[in-house]
Design brief:
about 50% strand, 1 helix, about 60 residues, binds zinc ion, alpha+beta, single chain
Length: about 60
């Protein structure tokens, strides 16, 4: 099985600043993999750890 993980950091939308869309890190992230892994929204630190461990395990 080929593992190809992708980590996506969640962004939180803020009220527009001077009509520009504004975002800030939400502190959560999701990790998905071609093998079917999908962590859903979990704390960012945990997501980075899972991403690293999942690659190491492949
Ligand atoms: Zn995988």
């Amino acid at each position: 099985m080929q593992h190809s993980t992708s980590l996506t950091r969640d962004l939180r939308e803020l009220p527009p600043i001077d009509s520009w869309a504004a975002f800030e890190p939400a502190g959560t992230a999701t990790v998905a993999c071609s093998c079917g892994l999908d962590t859903g929204h979990i704390p960012e630190g945990e997501a980075f750890a899972i991403d690293r461990e999942h690659r190491a395990a492949s």
